[in-house]
Amino acid sequence: MTRAIKIAPSILSADFANFGAECAAIESQGADWVHVDVMDGHFVPNITFGPATCAAIRPHIKGVMDVHLMIAPVDPYIDAFANAGADVITAHLEAGPHIHRTLQAIRSHGVKAGIALNPGTPAEAIAPLMDMIDLVCVMTVNPGFGGQSFIMSQIEKVRSLSDMIGDRPIHIEIDGGVDPKTAPLVAAAGADVLVAGSAVFRGGSVSAPEVYGENIRAIRAAAEAAL
Ligand code: DX5
Ligand code: ZN
C-alpha cells in the first residue's frame, strides 16, 4: 500500500538554544512532522533533553510532535512525555523487557504508539505487537548521533515490515542517514515517514530558512519519484 510521504526533520541538528524558532522555521518550510530525539546517555551514548524541554517546544509546533525516546528504562517516563504534549511517542523494543506494557501506557494517554528497532533487531520481532502500534521506526543508523552513514542492509527489513503490515494503518518511519540519495530506496521499500536531521538543517538557519525548504523539497521529490 502506498501512502503519502511525510518529512520529519529531526531537531537534533537544530540550534539547541533556539528550538522554538527552529520548529517554526521547518514547519513554515514544509516539514510534515517535527521529530524530537530524547537521549539518556545510558540506552545510547549521548544525552539531549527530557520532558521539560519537550513541553517548552510544544507551543512552537503547529503539527505533529513526534517524540523518539532513546532511553532505558522508558516506562517511568511515558506519563511525562505524554503530558508534555507528544502526538507520537516511540520507544525502543530493546529498551526493556516489557514493551507490550510500554505501548499500552502510551496509548492510554490517547497518544500514538511507535516502536523503534535498532539495526540488529529483525522485522519479525514486532509480529506479536501489530495490534499495539501506530508506527514502526526502522533505525538506519545505530541510534545516538546525527550525521551517520545510512546502513544499506536495513532496506530489506523495511520491505519485510511493509509486507507484514499490509493494509494496517501503521506508519513505517526511517531514522538515520536519510538524504535525497537514500530516501528513494526506503520509499520504494514501503516507508512513508522520513526523519532527516543533517540533510534538512545543513546550510540553513532561522535567518536563512529557505535553505531548509530546499532541503526538504529535495528529499521529498527524490522519495516520491521512487513510488
Ligand atoms: C539518531 C536520531 C536521529 C538523528 C538523525 O539517533 O534518532 O533522529 O537525528 O540524524 P541524521 O538525519 O543526521 O542521520
Ligand atoms: Zn530519532
From TrEMBL:
The keyword Signal does not apply. One of its GO terms (molecular function) is metal ion binding. GO terms for cellular component: cytoplasm. The active site is at D37 (proton acceptor), D175 (proton donor). CDD domains: RPE (cd00429). The keyword Lipid metabolism does not apply. Substrate binds at S10, H68, G144, F145, G146, G147, D175, G176, G177, G197, S198. A divalent metal cation binds at H35, D37, H68, D175. Gene3D superfamilies: Aldolase class I (3.20.20.70). Its EC number is 5.1.3.1. Pathway: Carbohydrate degradation. Binds 1 divalent metal cation per subunit. Keywords: Carbohydrate metabolism, Cobalt, Isomerase, Manganese, Metal-binding, Zinc. It catalyses: D-ribulose 5-phosphate = D-xylulose 5-phosphate. Its cofactor is Zn(2+); Fe(2+); Co(2+); Mn(2+). One of its GO terms (biological process) is pentose-phosphate shunt. Belongs to the ribulose-phosphate 3-epimerase family. PANTHER family: RIBULOSE-5-PHOSPHATE-3-EPIMERASE. Catalyzes the reversible epimerization of D-ribulose 5-phosphate to D-xylulose 5-phosphate. This is Ribulose-phosphate 3-epimerase. It comes from Poseidonocella pacifica.
